[in-house]
What we know:
Elements: H1 2-18, E1 23-25, E2 30-32, H2 36-55, H3 62-80, H4 86-95
Antiparallel strand pairs: 1-2
Amino acid sequence: MFLTFNRTLLSKDWVVNNWFTEGCDLWEEVRSDDFFFNRMAYVYSLNKCADFADLIGDDSGAADSYRGTASDIEGTLAVSAEWMSGSESKKMKSFF
């Protein structure tokens, strides 16, 4: 279990340090620093990894870092979600 978590740390640490940089959308083949669905996935996965870190008793500070970054990213999603109708916006908020 700890080996899996250590490997997960590498990818999640990359997300923590680079989520705001320009990247490429694999399906659309465009470059941007604002891919809505990537950010949704980052928020979900960072929160799940933080929960897992708590579960295994990790004391490296990863859980706090992941939750903090997830919160920062979620703040950008709230702005991006203004175009949605009220019911769709509620569904998105319940996702997190």
